[in-house]
Design brief:
Blueprint lengths: L14 E7 L3 H11 L9 E5 L9 E6 L9 E5 L1 E6 L2 E6 L4 E6 H13 L4 E5 L2 E6 L4 E5 L2 E10 L14 E13 L8 E6 L8 E10 L2 E10 L5 H15 L7 E14 L6 E2 L3 E3 L15 H18 L11 H16 L3 H12 L2 H8 L5 H9 L3 H13 L9
Parallel strand pairs: 1-2, 1-11, 2-8, 5-13, 11-18
Antiparallel strand pairs: 3-7, 4-7, 5-6, 9-10, 10-11, 12-15, 12-16, 13-14, 14-15, 17-18
Helix pairs in contact: 1-2, 1-4, 5-9
The structure holds flavin-adenine dinucleotide.
């Protein structure tokens, strides 16, 4: 048995109320939401996670118009973003929205400390190899033995067997350098949200900058495409941006931290509900938005939805996500275009930002727009690429990358 953070209270003979598999963003979010719900104050929770979660392995950025449970650990917040592409550049005030950043390590520490102080929660260090429905609940088997619970929540990375004849498989992949400069250079009040001015190489490629101060920023080279690049290629593009766009020679900045990642962008089915007692969370439950890779806010929304149902009815909600089919269709169409003609993506985003208020774009991406606003959004982009992709969706076959 692997070392446990609280081994004495892992009672193999006891059935927990809730079992959470994986303590990353989604598992810890659900656990924290549960811990904050007074109506579930008597419920026992076992969370099983193999890693110590003591590294800052990622940062989460997201927009929000509402206060949330993690305000205390927001490391930075911005009220304006910039969108740039050839022929169109705009710095946009976010109105009621704020763009926020949370460091992974702050999140893991904050939630794990809160749970450790709560005797109803057991954090166990280990893996779960199998999670199954039983007539009365769930059973998990893994490195720590067997555990049972009434409901199970699974956030292990999904084991996707790709079916490219039916679905689209892209990645949001990126490398970021946190740089420190000798002179004031960044506007700390403006996030460079998407800078598409560089060559696209028949893909969607942009620079993303989170400025933390006039001399410090995270600069990322990001792509929406099928295949990651060699590490050196991302770094060449970041150095190129620093030199040619910001006018920084090699000796005028230092790289103080690095980040890299690849987030799945796919219309492969990732069902959130698995039988009567199991719900999939996070990436496994389709919470990474297929057309953007943003997941953190969707994870919070799912946690809130699950906790509300458990508190109100004692049971899981019939619909574990609240996803609406029309947004799934929009995501699939955009993925199809990105896969076929990646370079068109920047035109679509340019038209979106040129012709819509940012509030509408954010609500559309949050999947909370009305039918009327969905029509306005769709009318703001050139229909050609979408018509062709609608054909692919109707035929049930993804479009192929254009040759030549
Ligand atoms: C570098 C990076 C940056 C990102 N930035 C953003 C961002 O800015 N904004 C945004 O909205 N989204 C972002 N995302 C996407 C998404 O928010 C994250 O991937 C998020 O961590 C997904 O949460 P999750 O719980 O599904 O997965 P994870 O956070 O990866 O958690 C899964 C957990 O399961 C554990 N596990 C694995 N195997 C087992 C097993 N057998 N048994 C038990 N546990 C197991 C793992 O150790 C891990 O802790 C980013 C992703 C990456 C990789």
């Amino acid at each position: 048995m692997l070392p446990s953070s609280n081994p004495a209270s892992f009672d193999k003979s006891a059935a927990y109320d809730y079992l959470i598999v994986g303590g990353g963003a989604a598992g810890l979010s659900l656990a924290y939401h549960l811990s904050q719900e007074p109506r579930l104050a008597d419920k026992t929770v076992l969370l099983i996670e193999p890693e110590a979660k003591d590294q800052n392995d990622r940062t989460w950025s997201f927009w929000t118009a509402e206060p949330h449970l993690f305000e205390a650990i927001v490391a930075h917040e911005w009220h304006r973003i910039a969108f740039r592409s050839p022929g169109f550049e705009q710095v946009i005030g976010l109105g009621p929205y704020r763009y926020q950043m949370i460091r992974g390590l702050d999140f893991y520490t904050f939630v794990r400390q809160a749970l450790a102080a709560n005797p109803r929660f057991t954090l166990l260090r280990g893996t779960v190899d199998e999670l199954t429905n039983t007539p009365t609940g769930v059973r998990a088997q893994g490195s720590a033995g067997t555990a049972t619970a009434r409901y199970g929540f699974d956030s292990r990375p999904p084991a996707v067997v790709q079916n490219p004849a039916r679905h689209r498989y892209l990645l949001q992949h990126f490398v970021g350098w946190e740089v420190e400069t000798d002179a004031d250079l960044f506007d700390p009040s403006v996030v460079e949200f998407m800078d598409f001015r560089g060559p696209q190489h028949r893909e969607a490629r942009f620079i993303y900058v989170l400025p933390f101060g006039p001399r410090r920023a995270l600069v990322e080279y990001t792509l929406f495409s099928e295949t990651p690049l060699p590490r050196a290629d991302y770094e060449t593009h970041i150095a190129d941006y620093l030199q040619h766009t910001l006018g920084l020679a090699a000796g005028q900045y230092r790289v103080v931290a690095e980040e890299a990642g690849a987030i799945p962008m796919t219309d492969h089915p990732l069902p959130a509900r698995v039988g009567p007692h199991i719900v999939n969370l996070g990436t496994r439950g389709g919470r990474a938005k297929p057309s953007t890779g943003y997941a953190f806010r969707r994870i919070q929304a799912q946690s809130a939805r699950l906790v509300a149902a458990l508190a109100e009815t004692g049971q899981l909600p019939a619909d574990a996500t609240g996803d609406r089919w029309q947004f799934r269709l929009f995501d699939t169409l955009l993925l199809d275009i990105m896969q076929r003609r990646g370079e068109t993506t920047r035109d679509i985003f340019r038209q979106l930002f040129e012709r819509n208020p940012v509030e509408r774009i954010f609500r559309f991406l949050d999947e909370t727009t009305s039918w009327a606003d969905n029509l306005r959004v769709m009318n703001s982009v050139s229909p050609g690429p979408f018509m062709r992709s609608i054909g692919h969706v109707l035929r049930g076959r993804p479009g192929k990358k254009r040759k030549g």
